[in-house]
Amino acid sequence: MIKPERPLAYIGRFAPSPSGDLHFGSLITAIGSYLQARANQGKWLIRIDDIDPPREVAGAASRILQSLEHYGLHWDGEILYQSQRYEAYRYVLNQLQQQGLSYNCICTRQRIQQANGFYDKNCRESNLPLNHAAIRLKQNNPVYGFEDKLLGYLSADPAMAEEDFIIHRRDGLFAYNLAVVIDDDYQGVTEVVRGADLIEPTVRQIALYQQLNLKIPDYIHLPLALNKNGNKLSKQNHAQPVPLDDPRPLLIEALAFLNQPVIKNWQDLSRDQLLKKATTHWDLDRIPRQGKIYK
Ligand SMILES: [Zn+2]
Fold first, then answer.
1. How far is the CA of 95 from the centre of ligand 1 (A)?
2. 186 C-alpha to ligand 1 centroid (Å)
3. Any known ligand binding at 215?
4. What are the residues whose beta carbon lies below 5 Å from ligand 1 (ion)?
5. Long-range residue pairs from 201-205, CB within 8 A, at least 24 positions apart, any chain
6. 235 annotated binding-site participant
7. Is pTM, for the whole model, over 0.70?
8. How many angstroms does the Cα of residue 164 sit away from the middle of ligand 1?
9. How many CB atoms lie within 10 A of CB 91?
10. Which positions bind L-glutamate (predicted)?
11. 176 labeled part of a ligand binding site
């Protein structure tokens, strides 16, 4: 008798960049990914996506972790810092180069914007030296859409999907799309739960998984918390850090934002009891598909 294949144990993650403190918008993503992992009896990992030092805010990484602890979002295992992972990224870059799947590009942003905003593969056959060049992936097998477990099938702008995107920047930094794929694979992440602002690059990341012959995770993109002007709450538009007083009211607010069943008499529950209840009640199908104005 053939034994049925045991499904992979669930591994989820929250991967903030330390470009500012945890605010209500990022708390939504943290709670959503946490509850989805816990409801699936899975692990929930934390990764600090600190590959962009110019955008980093001093002390933000440790304040984010402190906020997560304050809100009772306890993670599993060691925290992974992308700034410690350069060797792994370098290895994959070399691998892609040796397989002829990448090339150096010296085109300016202005030149690309003058075209249609998407890169026209100008340097693909030029064999340029690396000095002051960006490295681009050859998109030989573009991915035009993907199945989101909350939002259904999402298709991408074909021009975006087909673009030879940057995997190593000309300023010497590794590109987010490269690092996120390598690290999610390294950490064994089976499902990526993140904000809807990251829908767009997903097809590029899937294409990269395929180029590297890695297992593609599932995807869930959560609705964004918007300010009164309809913009995403973010560090750039001065979203307030989450307060470090009684965590329960804001947890309740976050659960309401995700349209989860009401927890009655939560005032009588401790923070951890409240999260336990929220895990039991967690219902992915109830989550709104659209971003919502917050305050
Ligand atoms: Zn170029």
1. 21
2. 30
3. no
4. 105, 107, 122-123
5. 201/176, 201/177, 202/146, 202/154, 202/156, 203/142, 203/143, 203/144, 203/145, 203/146, 203/156, 203/160, 203/161, 204/143, 204/160, 204/161, 204/163, 204/165, 204/177, 205/177, 205/180, 205/181
6. yes
7. yes
8. 10
9. 11
10. 13-17, 49, 176, 194
11. yes
Gap from CA of 110 to ligand 1 centroid (Å) = 12
Separation CA 179–CA 51 (nearest Å)? 8
Is 194 annotated as a binding-site member? yes
Q: How big is the chain, counted in residues? A: 295
Q: How far apart are CA 50 and CA 94, in angstroms?
A: 22
Dump pLDDT digits (tens) for 252-284. 999 999 999 999 999 999 999 999 999 999 999
Compute, in angstroms, the gap from residue 99 CA to the centroid of ligand 1.
Answer: 19
60 is in an annotated binding site: no
Report whether 217 belongs to an annotated binding site: no
Domains of the chain: 11-244 (3.40.50.620)
237 pLDDT exceeds 80?
A: no
- Is residue 109 a known part of a binding site? no
Of 6-15, 43-52, 67-76, which range is least confident?
6-15
pLDDT digits (tens, 9 = 90+) for 16-46: 999 999 999 999 999 999 999 999 999 999 9
**pLDDT at site 106:** 93
Pairing of the two strands 292-293 and 225-226: parallel
Known binding residue 17? Answer is: yes
Please check the confidence at residue 111 and state whether its pLDDT lies above 90: no
